[in-house]
Amino acid sequence: MKGMEKRSNWSILANDILKGRSVTKEEALKVLRASDSEILAVLTAAYTLRYHYYNNVVKLNMIVNAKSGLCPENCGYCAQSSIADTEVDKYPLWDKESLIRGAEEAVQRKAGTYCIVASGRGPTNKEIDQVTEAVKDIKAAMPLTICACLGILKEGQAERLKKAGVDRYNHNLNTHVDHHDAITTTHTYADRETTIDSAKQAEMSPCSGVIAGMGETEEQLIETFFALKEWDADSVPINLLHPVKGTPLENRETVGPLTSLKIIAAARFILPDKEIRVAGGREVNLRSLQPLALYAANSIFIGDYLTTGGQQVMADQQMIEDMGFSVDEPYGTKTT
Questions:
Q1: N or C: which terminus of the chain has fewer CB atoms within 10 Å of its end residue's CB?
Q2: Which of this chain's residues are annotated to bind [2Fe-2S] cluster (predicted)?
């Protein structure tokens, strides 16, 4: 009987949220701490919210590593950081033609969002020139949402990106303010907040998320989701740490499938109407339970990530179809 009551409680919470009540931090923590036997009830409740706002549609995002390596920052999770003992490709920012070819590939893969990512602390004005020139041509030829992730922005750069046609700017909070300095010391948490604010002020859609599994506490993870709620991030990528050999976090254990699902579900309870995207690390953390993440999340990356491989595009599209979902417009089947 107790099990039935617990399952009912998750459903009641989801319905309360749909009626306008915000979940509390204590309630969100209970999602993370739910027993493994409750996982289907938790996901069913999260799906109630996901379906209300997004139906059975999945947004596809394709990421390109448009500038690799050569980064002066010391982020402990990153294979491209200055302190990583890794072998990654090192090359400057792609030229205009390469950025356009990447967009064409995104269209071929049925992605609605094309994410241009560059390593480094932040872009030079010359690099902004390269990106904006390419974006103008892409937007003129292809109905893609353009997301840029170029690092910490200087004054005036956000406005230039917006004017060229960049729709969204990604800059993750990554972790809790109190855990930030355990992950990197070459920039501050405030630097990240300033860049998110710059994107918002320039009227780009703010995209900001987390990397779970870097040693943060459950309370810190939940509080970071609430911080993203305060920032009113439209899109929230949930990265699950993929420990890379040669980085300071190489020996951390992966989050694991059931815990990963609870993290994604908790994000949906806290941010019921936002785009929740399963991002880097989903293959190694969720493993065979990847399809279940779609009950809480409504967005995924397809193809490879920055320095780690992803699931084959056809496998992702088959997974979406097998789950009874459809790919979002403009390239998928419209759901009414």
A1: C
A2: 115, 147, 207, 277
115 is in an annotated binding site: yes
75 among the known binding-site residues?
A: yes
Write out the H or E segment, with its range, that includes residue 62. strand 57-67
Q: Is residue 295 part of a domain?
A: yes
Q: Is 147 annotated as a binding residue?
A: yes
The C-alpha atoms of residue 228 and residue 234 are separated, in whole angstroms, by 9
Residue 37 forms part of a structural domain: yes
CB 146 within 8 A of CB 139: yes
Secondary structure element (H or E) that encloses residue 126, with its range: helix 125-141
**φ, ψ of residue 202 in degrees (nearest 5):** -85, 0
CATH number of the domain residue 153 falls in: 3.20.20.70
18 within domain boundaries: no
* Number of domains within the chain: 1
* pLDDT tens sequence for the chain (336 residues): 455 556 679 999 999 999 999 999 999 999 999 999 999 999 999 999 999 999 999 999 999 999 998 899 999 999 999 998 898 899 999 999 999 999 999 999 999 999 999 999 999 999 999 999 999 999 999 999 999 999 999 999 999 999 999 999 999 999 999 999 999 999 999 999 999 999 999 999 999 999 999 999 999 999 999 999 999 999 999 999 999 999 999 999 999 999 999 999 999 999 999 999 999 999 999 999 999 999 999 999 987 555 444 568 888 999 999 999 999 966 544 443
Q: Whole domain around residue 127: which residue ranges?
A: 24-327
- On whether residue 246 sits in a domain, the answer given is yes
